[in-house]
């Protein structure tokens, strides 16, 4: 089955760090660019970060630039998001999403993992 | 960065109605627009891409149109399973990408 499964979300204090993981299965992970997209409680979707299949091209939203780091391990079929200096504004469900081969838009999404930054 | 607006923010409709949702970009995006459906507690689901191309497995009652800065999602003959929130996404050029704020479709 083609799927993405996120993990690592939990309650963390403001100023803290967290690393999210996304496990891919059912497709050739190393061929696809990947993204993280988040959704604050009761709010809309916000694109967070993009990484190309070979990790040579990376982009971030201004809201996380300098604090978050996206990475991947193609040998482990895994995507990561290292989040530092978390604030309450980072509280959200974080989705791992695959870009359509040869294009930018997201065509496959995981179920998400909840990150809560609160004291 | 490209900003997206979406209208209406919410609407009430009945089963069988035709529903139209509009997204407007702050600059031309050359049909680099996708539409997603999201139900409460679930991940978004891709409906259309390149403004009008229907994703495999999506019912044909969903259609998209537009060009330049203005794009439309139309749902013909609304079904009970279509009550959800709909988002547009622009993916023109390189990131950052941007989503519209969403349109919630609920039952009249």
Q: Main β-sheet of chain A: number of strands, strand sense, barrel status?
A: 7 strands, mixed
Instruction: Please provide the count of β strands of chain A.
Output: 11
Strand content of chain A: over 45%
Radius of gyration of chain A: 13 Å
Indicate the overall shape of chain B: globular
Task: Describe the protein's architecture and organization.
The complex is a heterodimer of chains A (119) and B (108). Chain A is globular, with a radius of gyration of 13 Å. In chain A, the strands form two sheets. In chain A, strands 2, 4, 5, 6, 9, 10 and 11 form a seven-stranded mixed sheet that branches. Chain A has a four-stranded antiparallel sheet with strand order 1-3-8-7, with no helix packed on it. Chain A is built from no helices and eleven strands. Chain A is an all-beta fold and 119 residues long. In chain A, a hairpin with a 4-residue loop joins β7 and β8 (78-83). Chain B has no helices and eleven strands. The radius of gyration of chain B is 13 Å and the shape is globular. The model of chain B has no long low-confidence stretch (mean pLDDT 97). Chain B is an all-beta fold and 108 residues long. Helices cover 0% and strands 49% of the residues of chain B. Chain A binds chain B through residues 44-47, 50, 59-62, 95, 100, 103-107, 109-112, and chain B through 1, 32, 34, 36, 38, 42-46, 49, 55, 87, 89, 91, 94-102.
What's this entry about, in short?
The complex is a heterodimer of chains A (119) and B (108). By secondary structure, chain A is an all-beta fold.
Topology, pairings included?
The complex is a heterodimer of chains A (119) and B (108).
Chain A: E1 3-7, E2 11-12, E3 18-25, E4 34-39, E5 45-51, E6 58-60, E7 68-73, E8 78-83, E9 92-99, E10 106-109, E11 113-117
Parallel strand pairs in A: 2-11
Antiparallel strand pairs in A: 1-3, 3-8, 4-5, 4-9, 5-6, 7-8, 9-10, 9-11
Chain B: E1 4-7, E2 10-13, E3 19-25, E4 33-38, E5 45-49, E6 53-54, E7 62-67, E8 70-75, E9 85-90, E10 98-99, E11 103-107
Parallel strand pairs in B: 2-11
Antiparallel strand pairs in B: 1-3, 3-8, 4-5, 4-9, 5-6, 7-8, 9-10, 9-11
């Amino acid at each position: 089955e083609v799927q993405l499964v996120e993990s690592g979300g939990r309650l963390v204090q403001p100023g803290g760090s967290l690393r999210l993981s996304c496990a891919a299965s059912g497709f050739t992970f190393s061929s696809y660019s990947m993204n993280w997209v988040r959704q604050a409680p009761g709010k809309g979707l916000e694109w967070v970060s993009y990484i190309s299949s070979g990790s040579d091209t990376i982009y971030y939203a201004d809201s996380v630039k300098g604090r978050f780091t996206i990475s991947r391990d193609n040998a482990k079929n895994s995507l990561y998001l290292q989040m530092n200096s978390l604030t309450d504004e980072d509280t959200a469900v974080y989705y791992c999403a695959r870009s359509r081969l040869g294009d930018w838009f997201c065509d496959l999404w995981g179920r998400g993992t909840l990150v809560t930054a609160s004291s | 960065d490209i900003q997206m607006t979406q209208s209406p923010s919410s609407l009430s409709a009945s089963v069988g109605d035709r529903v139209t949702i509009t997204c407007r970009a702050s600059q031309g995006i050359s049909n680099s627009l996708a539409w997603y459906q999201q139900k409460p507690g679930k991940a978004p689901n891709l409906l259309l891409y390149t403004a009008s191309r229907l994703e495999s497995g999506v019912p044909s009652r969903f259609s998209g149109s537009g060009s330049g800065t203005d794009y439309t999602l139309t749902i013909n003959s609304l079904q009970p399973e279509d009550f959800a929130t709909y988002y547009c996404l622009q993916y023109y050029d390189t990131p950052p990408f941007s989503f519209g704020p969403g349109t919630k479709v609920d039952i009249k």
